[in-house]
Input
Amino acid sequence: MAYIGAEVMISPLGETTEENWLALCENRSGISLVPDAGFDKEGLYLSKIPGLTGPARFRGLLTRALKQISEKIDPAILPSARTIVLISSTKGELDGNIADQFGEPAAALITEFHLAHQPIIVSNACISGVLAINAAANFINAKIYDHVIVIGCDLISDFVVYGFQSLFAISDQPCMPFDAARKGISMGEGCAAVVVSSDREIYKDQPLRLFSGASANDANHISGPSRTGEGLVRSTKKTMNNNGITASEIDFICAHGTATLYNDEMESIAFDRLNLTHIPLNSLKGYFGHTLGAAGVIETSVCMQMIRQGMLLKSLGFREKGTSKELNIVSANKPAQINTILKTASGFGGGNAALIIRKI
Amino acid sequence: MDTLKEDLKKQIIEQLNLEDITPSDIQDDSALFDDAGLGLDSIDALELIVLLEKYHGIQVTNPDEGKEAFKSVQTMADYIRKRKGDL
Amino acid sequence: MSFITTYCHLTKDYCSVNGTIAGRRDPESADSWFKQIYKEKEFVYPKFYKMDILSQAGFLASELIKRANPELVTRYKDDEVAMLFGNDNSSAETDVRFRKSYQENGAPSPSLFVYTLPNIVMGEIAIINKWYGENMFAVLPKFVSGFFVDYAQILLATGSKAVLCGWLGIKDKSTEVFLFLIEKQAAVGIPSNADNLSALAGNTSFTTD
Output
């Protein structure tokens, strides 16, 4: 059995989990207009961390997150031979060393925190974060490690901004997931970390239960969402079946919701096929933008906070129904008793992944 | 011979890395995005937008506009002439 | 118990299947080495030409494994074949090409950008084979047999019946591609453990008979 806890978030909304939660409760967004950010020097709406510049930004964020983590768990865990660090990211320290985007930051973590094992980078596009947390649970359940620290981190760079511009995927307004007027994504940057463990005693605050989920490929297209939501349906179904969890037990769905026309439509079709459209749902992209490889860890951390604080967060940017299948989108913050959350992600390469967390 | 159309065929092959296809394999009015034609996909369509800007100085800001223009080499040539005010 | 049943190496000068050489690079050819293999083995999948180098490597090696082990495509349900790939430099080769497109060639290229993620190769293989199974791509400083054996075992214990694993070490000057199939049940094959896998991975002294 796997526990998950000690969530840490560093984003434009704050340096700590507490600051982030406060901003989320106020429905503040990290997205703002950044001048000259586009390929033609046009302004773009981005969710950028203020003051985060210069070389080694990626390493800096990983280090800050791991430091915060170390204060939330038994200090013997970090250097333990029974502990491994997984880093979920797509582009790592690309601006510093495009030829080797992860080698130096990973080596720096080993030295600074006396890690016993080489960190593993999980790089599966936008599902990296959810996949890495699932990998952590798998390692625990197979007893290969007793503790796994998952850090999700990705940065905004010209590289990713120009790339998504070339796909005409960036919205000219702050992104509006699932809304009728949505026009695409807003890019974001951020870092989050969680500790997955077989031992609930290592956490200073009460952990939650983590049910390891499944991933599934759409086998359809490398960059376009499936029209049928096949992979999302399969990964969600397997995640529920493998853990013996039924729809009636799920209190909330934290969807992927990138705010592109086709992604959000695909998700609505998938949730309809799964008979889950009545369950309250949100996308957190309106707060953080799309943080790519970090998204799954950031959003799972927010889900953990939602359970702890007993609050459903508004799906920021949503105003009116914009998908062919109607979803139960949270339109305002609402206090609620939340026990079980389903988190999903979908991404380039046809990947889809899901996981479930539950209050103990 | 319409040199614009011949140029376009070469540029399409170059921009899209269409190995084993020569300009003579592409008919002026054969459908670029049909499997019976060149079988291009949505990413290729975006690459054609890059082509228009790179070789012809034409900016396409709405990809839907490209859809009409990219039906065939003929429609692409017509579109370029229209945008340049030759028609 | 699970078994390594089929494997394929692509290096700078050779390709081999199950340790037996299957092709040698012609240094006189105008075609890239991967294109030479594609033509020589008479593969027909025009999308190959549009793929980046990681996906080309994954395509060739997985197709060669299928030819050597045709049951891979008939024996399993569409979600029973998982993929577990890795390398030490993510999609760096393609990343450099994409950066060049906007720094030197005038505009960011969308068809290059979509390949600037290392997991895309698994998407391509999933599309060809209609495989809806689990996928994971890991970046590690070097090939670690233990990681592949352990995680493949996890996948085999959670619903997958075969795991196509791959190390895609492709750099400017070197090519170290190693794909191998681990199956839960097999008539032939060697037991999947770190020692056996290391022995196969290091098998660069190809036999020529």
